[in-house]
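Input sequence (136 aa), recorded before submission:
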Amino acid sequence: MSAKTDTEVIIGGKVLTVSGNESVEYLQKVASYINNKINEYAKMDSFRRQSVDKQNMLIQLNIADDYFKARKQIDLLEQDLKAKDNELYDLKHELIATQIKLDNTSKSLKEANETLNENSKQIVRLETELKESKKV
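Predicted structure, token format:
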């Protein structure tokens, strides 16, 4: 676990000291995200007319919404990754089974060729014997 980090950030125009086990850069990035949300909503007249408490609640709800949408996207991507892993696993096994069939077929073909060669030799031998027996 990394050491606790303290850093000053500006959120909503106020300087705050935040602490965490993350890097200073990460803590600044989080503060920047919150500031972007505040600025996004501050541009809306309907938002500015709300009380500060309601503004804070709306920003919190929006950040929570972003979180849940990101979490859902992550879950979908993890499901997709799991499905692709399963498909890859199945394809590897199919490849292995096909390779075994190919090896067995190659072995059978080699044996059949050897048998054919032996039979061809036997035919030549028998034809030679037949010709010699007719000569006598």
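Checked by second reader. The chain has a mean pLDDT of 95.
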